[in-house]
C-alpha cells in the first residue's frame, strides 16, 4: 500500500476524546481513532489514579474504563476495573510474613455484580487458623460494604481506602498487620445483565418442575 493510500485512510478517521464518568469528574483520559462512532463503543482505556488526580501517590492504581456512548467527537465511558500494579503488590511482600487473599463476588444495592479481591499482609508469619480468621474478616467486610452501597459508592470506598481501613481495623485484632489493600475490583455484570440472568434461571427452574396429570 502506498504512503498516499495510508495517509488517505488516516485522514478519513477521526479522533475521539475519551472522558471518564461523572464519578471521576468527566476528566479526559485519552483519545481513540476510528472511522465511525460505533467502532469506538466497547473499547477500553486504562489510566492511573495518579494521572486522574494529578497526584503521583496514585500511580500504583490502575483504572479501566469502557466506552459506552459517543456524541460528536466525544466518547463517554463507564468504570469497569480497579487494580493495583504488580510492582506495588510485590513491594508489600516481606520474608517471614503472611499474605492472605480472598476473592468475593457481591451484588450492590443497585444490582451491579462485582468481584473484589482484598489482600492482607501480616508483620510476621501467621498460623493457618489466624490466616483463615483474617480471610473471614475480609469476606464479611466486603459483604457488609456491598449490602448498603451502590456500585459508585462501593468504588469510592475502595479508591479512597475506606474499605481497606475497615478490614485492617477488624483483622488487626487477630494478628498484627502491616498493610491491607483491595488489589482488584472487577465489574462482572450490570443490573440489566443480572436481571436477564435471573429471569433465565427462573425459566429453567420452571421447565424442570414436573407436572402431575
UniProtKB/TrEMBL annotation:
The gene is rps3ae. It holds the Pfam family Ribosomal_S3Ae. GO terms for molecular function: structural constituent of ribosome. This is Small ribosomal subunit protein eS1. Belongs to the eukaryotic ribosomal protein eS1 family. SMART domains: Ribosomal_S3Ae. GO terms for biological process: translation. It comes from Halopenitus persicus. One of its GO terms (cellular component) is ribonucleoprotein complex. Keywords: Ribonucleoprotein, Ribosomal protein.
Amino acid at each position: 500500500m502506498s504512503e498516499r493510500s495510508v495517509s488517505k485512510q488516516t485522514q478519513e478517521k477521526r479522533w475521539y476524546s475519551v472522558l471518564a464518568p461523572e464519578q471521576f469528574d468527566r476528566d479526559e483520559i485519552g483519545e481513540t481513532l476510528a472511522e465511525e462512532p460505533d467502532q469506538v463503543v466497547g473499547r477500553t482505556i486504562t489510566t492511573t489514579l495518579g494521572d486522574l488526580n494529578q497526584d503521583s501517590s496514585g500511580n500504583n492504581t490502575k483504572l479501566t474504563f469502557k466506552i459506552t456512548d459517543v456524541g460528536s467527537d466525544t466518547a463517554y465511558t463507564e468504570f469497569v476495573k480497579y487494580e493495583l500494579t504488580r510492582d506495588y503488590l510485590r513491594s508489600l511482600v516481606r520474608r517471614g510474613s503472611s499474605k492472605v487473599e480472598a476473592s468475593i463476588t457481591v451484588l450492590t444495592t443497585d444490582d451491579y455484580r462485582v468481584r473484589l479481591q482484598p489482600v492482607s499482609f501480616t508483620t510476621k508469619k501467621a498460623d493457618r487458623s489466624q490466616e483463615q480468621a483474617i480471610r473471614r474478616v475480609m469476606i464479611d467486610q466486603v459483604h457488609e460494604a456491598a449490602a448498603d452501597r451502590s456500585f459508585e459508592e462501593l468504588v469510592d470506598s475502595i479508591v479512597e481506602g475506606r474499605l481497606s481501613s475497615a478490614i485492617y481495623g477488624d483483622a488487626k485484632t487477630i494478628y498484627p498487620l502491616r498493610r491491607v489493600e483491595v488489589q482488584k475490583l472487577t465489574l462482572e455484570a450490570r443490573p440489566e445483565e443480572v436481571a436477564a440472568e435471573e429471569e433465565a434461571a427462573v425459566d429453567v427452574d420452571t421447565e424442570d418442575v414436573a407436572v402431575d396429570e
